[in-house]
Amino acid sequence: MWVSPGEMERPEAERLGYLRVDRPRRGSHRVVLAVGSPTQVLIPGAGRRVNLRLQGYTATVCCGVVGLALVGRPPTESTGVLEGRAVWRGGELPTPTLIRNTTDPEVCGADHTLDDLVVSADLGVQNVIAALVDVPIDLVPPAVPGRVVLDNADCRFSPHASVLTVGSVIETHNSDPTLHTTHLYGASEVNLALPLEGQSVSHTVDRPGLIAVKCDVHGWMSAFVRVDEHPFHAVSNASGSFRIVDLPAGDYVLEAWHERLGTRRREVRIVPDETSNIVLEFTGER
User: Fold this and answer.
1) Phi-psi region at 249: left, alpha or beta (left = phi > 0; alpha = psi -120 to 50)
2) Based on the number of CB atoms within 10 Å of its own CB, is 51 exposed (0-12), middle (13-18) or buried (19 or more)?
3) Secondary structure of the chain: what % helix, strand, coil (to 5)?
4) Buried b (16+ CB within 10 A) or exposed e, 126-137
5) Do the beta carbons of residue 152 and residue 215 sit within 8 Å?
6) Domain 79-282, classified CATH 2.60.40.420, yes or no
C-alpha cells in the first residue's frame, strides 16, 4: 500500500512502522527510519531501481516520486535453537593425512598432519561447517560484523575451520619465526604476507561463499572459512557437536560441509523457545 506524505499523519505512519522519506532537492532522497524499522524500503516512481543496505536492512529504492511504504519489518516471533552432532558411520576409524616435511624443518618439525579428517574416539567429526541455506532476507537480522584470528602457529593454521558474516574481518597472525603467507582463495582472493614473527594483517570479507586458505611457503598448511549473509552457522568441535542460536521459527535446509567427507543437506524445523536436535552421519569420503 502506497501512502503519500499528505495522506497519513506522521505519528500514525511511525506507529505502523513506516519510513519517512524527504526530498531535500531535485534528484535526491533522504530516507529516515521510523519506529518499527521496516526490512525493505520501496519508493515508487519513474527511473531505474538500485539496491541499498540501510542500517543492516535491505532497501530497494526507485528514483522519482517521494512516498511512504510499509513492506515488512524484522521478525518479532520467538526464536529457537538448533543443536547437532556430526558423526562417523563409515566403519574403521579414519585418520588425518600425515606428511614428511622438508621445508623449514628446524622451525616446523619433520612430520605434519593436514588436519583434514579429525574423528574423536566416540566418532564425533570435527571441523564440519554447518549453515542454513536460502534464508529469506526478511528473517536475517541486522549484520553484526565479527572477527576471526587466523594464527600461523607451529606451521599450522588455527582455527582450521571457521564461520563469519559478510563485512567481518579475518585477522591473520604469524606466531612463528619464519615467513608465512595467508593466501585466500574463493569468496575472497588476496595473498597476505607475514615475514615477521608477531606480525598481523587484516582483511575484510565482502561477499558470501567458501574461502580456502593456504600458505605458499608450507604447502601442507590449510584452513577454511565460510562467509554467510546471516549468522545462522557453526563449526563442529572436537566431539562433533555444534550449536546455532536465535533462529527464527520455521522450516529450513541445513547444509553440512567437510573438506574430505563432502556435503550433506537435511531439512530442519525450528520451534519457538525450544531446542531442535539433529545428527549428521558421514559414511565415507565424498
Assistant:
1) beta
2) exposed
3) 5, 45, 50
4) bbbbbbbeebee
5) yes
6) yes
Low-confidence stretches of the chain (pLDDT beneath 50): 1-76
Burial environment of residue 5 by CB neighbours within 10 A (0 to 12, 13 to 18, 19 or more): middle
Say if residues 184 and 211 touch (Cβ distance below 8 Å).
Answer: yes
Amino acid at 121: A
Neighbours of 274 (CB within 10 A): 12
pLDDT of residue 186: 97
For the chain, residues classed under CATH 2.60.40.420 are 79-282
DSSP string, 86-106: EEE-SSSPP---EEE--SSHH
**Per-residue pLDDT, 68:** 34
Give the number of other CB atoms < 10 A from CB of residue 232: 25
CA atoms of 203 and 185, how far apart (whole Å): 13
Distance (Å, rounded) from C-alpha 38 to C-alpha 58? 9
Please, is 226 exposed, middle or buried when counting C-beta atoms within 10 Å of its C-beta (0-12, 13-18, 19+)?
A: buried
pLDDT at site 286: 64
- What pTM was estimated for this model as a whole? 0.74
Q: Answer whether 127's CB lies under 8 Å from 149's CB.
A: no
Q: Cell triple for residue 151? A: 594464527
Give the separation between CA 51 and CA 220, rounded to whole angstroms. 42
Residue 229 contacts residue 206 (beta carbons within 8 Å): no
